[in-house]
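REQUEST ID: PR-0412
SUBMITTED BY: lab tech R.K.
PRIORITY: routine
TASK: structure prediction, single protein chain
INPUT:
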Amino acid sequence: MPRRKGISPVIATVIIVAVAIAVTIAVAFWMTGIIGLFTGAVEKLEIVSATATATDGGWTITLVARNTGTTQTSVDVVFVNGYNATKLTCGTQTVTVTPNLPKVIKPGEEVQFTIEIASGACSVDDTEVFRATSGVSLEVKLHTTGGKEYPKLLTLP
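STATUS: complete
OUTPUT:
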């Protein structure tokens, strides 16, 4: 009867232990990732109201943002139609944003942002980028230091 050859019991045990350790490490990294998703700090702003009101010669846009996340966040830029609002000139006036940026918002806190836009051509560095007139839609975005953006679309009355 020919003798069958195979791996020795010692080699087989080493292979089984190595596979078990590799699977355990993979499961540990996977579980760490899942736990981090549910217990980590979360940045989340919610725009609870957005209005555009006509004023003499322009509009006042009011956004109320609430921090519904688990960590404080900071709004560092307000964009209007994709352009930094503080670098926009509409008509003959620079667009103003209050409160001053960056604005820290703590969890559960609400902050009102006011953007004053004059009627007419809006430009950046003397290049017209859009025209602020009645009936025009504007996309207003709050950008945070965490790199997230929270947009809202408004139509000027």
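NOTES: DSSP finds one helix and 13 strands in the chain.
REVIEWED BY: pending
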